[in-house]
Amino acid sequence: MEAKPAEHMPHTAPVTRDEVEAELISSLYKRTRPLLLANIGAMSLLTMSLWSSANTFYLLSWAIALFSWTMLRFALAKLYLRRPRSVGEAKHWVYAFSVGSGVAGTLWGISILLIGSLGPEHAKLVAAFMMAALSASAIAGYTNSIIAFGAFTAPALTPFGIHMIWFDGEPSWIIASFVVFWGLLLWSMARHLNDGFKENVGLMLGNLRLIDHLSLAKDRAEMANRAKTSFLGNMSHELRTPLNAVIGYSEMMKLQMLGPIGNPQYVEYVEHIHDRGQHLLGFVAQVFELSQLEAGAVELTETRIDVAKLVSEAVEAIIPATSTDRIEFTAMIATNLPTLRGDEGKLQEILRHLLSNAVKFTPAEGAVTVAAERTPDGGLALCIRDTGIGMDPADIDRVTTPFQHLENQDHLKRRAALKNDVGQTNTGLGLPITRLLVELHDGRLGIESTPGAGTQVTVWLPPERLIDVEHDQTVMSTGDRDQAVPGMLGLASRAAE
Predict the structure, then answer these.
(1) Per residue in 292-346, pLDDT tens?
(2) Which residues contact 286 (CB under 8 A, 6 or more apart)?
(3) Closest to 359 measured CA to CA, from 495, 193, 159, 191
(4) What is the structure's pLDDT at 234?
(5) Which of 38, 115, 351, 362 could, after both became Cys, cross-link 388 (CB 3.0–4.6 A)?
């Protein structure tokens, strides 16, 4: 039976040529207002310059016709922009715009008949100026559509070009070559700009489509994450209730509170049930906490925290687990550290995860070092170093990813058992939760490790989380008690026992 392929979100469809053309014609109509205002301005200027030389009737007839057609085109643009148009309608509106451009170009071309009423020198200057102005207008306003560009420039510029060539009654081949070159250059520029517009519009539409696609994917991911968080919350509640009962009853049996258990083997089984139940309950709690952190549903309860006290309490809590392994603890705590602003419970959890890992993967008679000091940028660094089994640097990214197991962390794959190994697979959630808690404090987590030589994990907290700035360092060690920080000596003693 063939496995069905995983369902993926459909890829974004490519942008079609019709869509690009529709966007280009829409841009043409949007730019109609400044273009038409420029036409009215040029028409008024030309009318005033010809008022004393040209036939008044013909001049006013031409000006009124051009002005009326300009306003008609403006009304057409407003009609187009009044509502969104479908892609299929674009071609019809391109043709409508081109017809309007062709009539406008023809009216401008007719103006050469009026310019002829000027003196020879003035007529040549005005004709050259009009060719340049009309060319600039065509480049600025019509290159979105080659059809509209040609419809405007051909009837508008051809009469002026012919007039320039035959200005003295005989054709001037030099002027003709310039006019031809000018036309070719203008056409080449228009094609180049049109291609650029098409490429840019295609990229813009593709980006907009990709943004919509990613927005939809983001919404789906957020919905899935909320559903996951809700499911894990319900699962956590449903599992905790029976697990608490299992743990409670097994603990009563383990302590034989209602009387002795006949067979000693049952006592051992009850201890295993109790231990596995506690492990599973801790795993459920970690899964729920991870889902809450990933969903951004965890908020900090910030207070002022004494860093030395924070570290000492974390070490105090972990030392009983190391009593049979004779692990040497060394604490390097800078004196006069500034007060830390953060969530004390969350910071204790960070240190607890890191110290537990350090102890778990450090062999008997190994060493664990805890350091707290200022960083060069004014922040705070909490560092935990161990002489444990370490790991390959290539695996560092994996250990901060949920549910990732390394070979030396999984009881099914270990080459040698760890101390206190009860055959339980590491959940792979401690470091991911730690990383998210550190990032919740605007910090970052760094890991350096070498197989067989140990691991160093550093929590960097930014300067914004510190209050008051004084800096000095004192070392406390189980091997150097004379330099121990007051209040930490008891921890050193108990670690060395």
Answers:
(1) 887 777 889 999 999 999 998 988 888 887 777 788 888 888 888 889 999 999 9
(2) 427, 429, 430, 433
(3) 495
(4) 78
(5) 362
Q: What's the average model confidence in pLDDT over 360-382?
A: 90
Sheet of 367-374: strand order equals: 444-450, 454-461, 380-386, 367-374, 328-333, 474-477
With a pLDDT cut of 70, the percent of the chain lying above it is 85
CA-angle at 300, arms to 298 and 303, nearest 5°: 165
Determine the Cα angle at 368 with ends 363 and 374, to 5°. Answer: 160
Tokens of 181: 């070159």
Q: Which of 36, 49, 45 is nearest to 75 (CA)?
A: 36
Q: What is the pLDDT of residue 28?
A: 77
- In this structure, are strands 474-477 and 328-333 parallel, antiparallel, or unpaired? antiparallel
Q: In the sheet that 303-305 helps form, which strands lie side by side, from edge to edge?
A: 303-305, 339-342, 466-467
| Residue 288, token pair as written in the block | 């729920």
> Which residues, 6 or more positions from 240, have their beta carbon under 8 angstroms from its beta carbon?
281, 284, 285
Structure tokens given for 323: 């009593």
Q: What is the pLDDT of residues 317-328, one digit of tens each?
A: 888 877 777 888
Q: What is the mean pLDDT of residues 388-414?
A: 68
The DSSP line for 84-106 is: ---GGGHHHHHHHHHHHHHHHHH
Helix, strand and coil percent figures for the chain, each rounded to 5: 60, 10, 30
> Pick from 465, 459, 468: which is nearest to 336 by CA?
468
> Do 36 and 74 touch, CB atoms closer than 8 A?
yes
Q: Which of 328, 462, 302 is nearest to 382 (CA)?
A: 462
Structure tokens at 396: 């560092």
Residue 63: count of CB within 10 angstroms of its CB: 19
- Burial per residue of 459-477, b for 16 or more beta-carbon CB atoms within 10 angstroms, e otherwise: bbbeeebbeeeeeeebebb
- Return the pLDDT at 458: 94
Residue pair 275/213 in contact (Cβ under 8 Å)? The answer is: no
What pTM value is reported for the model?
0.53
Q: Please name the residues in contact with 394: beta carbons below 8 A apart, sequence gap of 6 or more.
A: none
- Rounded to 5 degrees, what angle do the CA atoms 375, 380, 382 make? 105
* Structure-block tokens of residue 274: 């109790």
CB 370 within 8 A of CB 315: yes
pLDDT tens sequence across 197-254: 888 888 888 888 888 888 888 888 888 877 777 777 777 778 878 888 888 888 888 8
